[in-house]
Every structure is written in C-alpha cells, then in structure tokens.
Amino acid sequence: DSGVTQTPKHLITATGQRVTLRCSPRSGDLSVYWYQQSLDQGLQFLIHYYNGEERAKGNILERFSAQQFPDLHSELNLSSLELGDSALYFCASSVRTGWNTGELFFGEGSRLTVL
Amino acid sequence: AQTVTQSQPEMSVQEAETVTLSCTYDTSENNYYLFWYKQPPSRQMILVIRQEAYKQQNATENRFSVNFQKAAKSFSLKISDSQLGDTAMYFCAFMKHKDGGTSYGKLTFGQGTILTVHP
Fold first, then answer.
1. A26 - beta bridge partners?
2. Is residue B102's pLDDT more than 50?
3. Shortest CB distance from A94 goes to which of B50, B52, B105?
4. Looking at residue A83, what DSSP letter applies?
5. For A57-78, what is the mean pLDDT?
6. Other C-beta atoms lying within 10 Å of the C-beta of residue A10
C-alpha cells in the first residue's frame, strides 16, 4: 500500500460527459502528480501541483483541469469526454523534503471508460 | 526533451533463472534519475530500483540490479532468481534532477516490457 488513495477505481461514462477523479496523497506529501496511461500514448505526465499551486504541465488537454485543495487532496476534472480519453489515470505524491530521492508513490489508478 | 526506449515488448524466463530487460534513453541533461517501475496485473505502479546519474556505482535491491552506462545512455535491469511474482509490465523511466522545480517529478516512461515468469 503506497498510502496514495484514488477514487473511483472504475468509472464508465458516455461521450460528452464530465467526470472528476480524486486523489489523496500520502500523509505529509505536498506534491501531487497526475499521469495518464493509455494503449496509444503509454504513460504520460499530465500535471504537477505543489501545496496548492500548479508547478508543471505536461501533455494535458484543454478539456482537462486539475486543482489541489488546502487539505492537499487533488481532483482531476475531465470534460467533453471523447472515446480516446479512455485510460487509466494515476495520481502520485512525493515527500516534501526528500527531493534527492526522486521517488514518487503511486495510487492504484482510476480506470475511465468512455462509451 | 527526453526520450526513453524499451526495445523488448515481451520477455519470458523460467522460474529461478536470470533475465535482463533493456532500456536506452536520450537526454542532454547531466543530472537526473533513472527508475524501473513494475506494474503487475493489479495495476499498481511499484518502484523496483532507482539510480542517480552522478553515482557510478550500479544500484542493487535484493534480486534486482541495474547496469548503468551513462556514456552509452543505457540502463538495463537484471532480475536474478526470477519468481512467479515478478510477472508484470516493467517500465523504465527518466526524471530530471531538481532544477528549480518546473519539471521536478515529471517522469518520462518507456513503452514497457511485459515479463512473464514460467514455473
């Protein structure tokens, strides 16, 4: 158990809909990262938040947005969903002072299926 | 931009034998981390081993060891005494060292290698 909690584990929805994925980082971790794993694109970095502030963006679509709340949990919002958005979405967190390890702790992922 | 290449889509090995998974990467950075992550059927991404580029000594974690060749930009994973529980997808990944924070924590993954351990 990595200590990172993601909900829901599975989600099935229709094209054009909007969903929210939630992530609770490990206790004490200030950084949250979102990754997407799909058959076409593999594992891709989406976005990084540190203590409520956006720090880096990767290949995140404009239809997607994220935020990190004062209690450090994060939400990834996916809107106007398309078939190609079907993927496994991972959240990861890292220790606030252990930067020299570079280690990220991953949740179990949220499997999104768009029909 | 960094790229990570895993040229072996699938590998198989007999239980108790040794297997090596290959990974090459391309970067202009001098300071970085390299990782091997394991993703079993449960989907969880599990860190197997980590290497800091400035360290010449190859990292070792129990049955797992790496052969890090910085000049060749190669980072292979050797699994000794393979066990059935090692069956999983293995990902090689690259991360820039702390550089002011803009890309910190951004992992660039390879395509993955499916490893099957046979009894």
1. none
2. no
3. B105
4. G
5. 95
6. 9
Closest chain A residue by Cα to residue B33: A102
- Whether B33 contacts chain A with CB within 8 A: yes
What confidence tier does A96 reach under pLDDT thresholds 50, 70, 90?
low
Using pLDDT thresholds of 50, 70 and 90, give the confidence band for residue B30: confident
Separation in Å, CA B57 to CA B31, B40, B68, B69: 15, 28, 8, 10
Q: How many CB atoms lie within 10 A of CB B119?
A: 6
Residue B113: count of CB within 10 angstroms of its CB: 22
Å between A14 CA and nearest CA of chain B: 24
Average pLDDT of the residues in B21-36: 94
Cβ within 8 Å, pair A56-B111: no
| A33 contacts A47 by C-beta, under 8 angstroms | yes
Tell which residue, B18, B110, B33, has the closest CA to residue B64. B18
Looking at per-residue pLDDT, the higher value among B51 and A101 belongs to: B51
CA dist., res. B85 & res. B88, Å (int) = 8
* Mean pLDDT within A47-52: 91
Dist CA A67 CA B111 (whole Å): 28
**Residue carrying the six token digits 């000049």:** B71
pLDDT of residue B39: 95
The span from the CA of A36 to the CA of A47, in Å, is: 10
Query: How many other C-beta atoms can be found within 10 angstroms of the C-beta atom of residue B96?
Result: 21
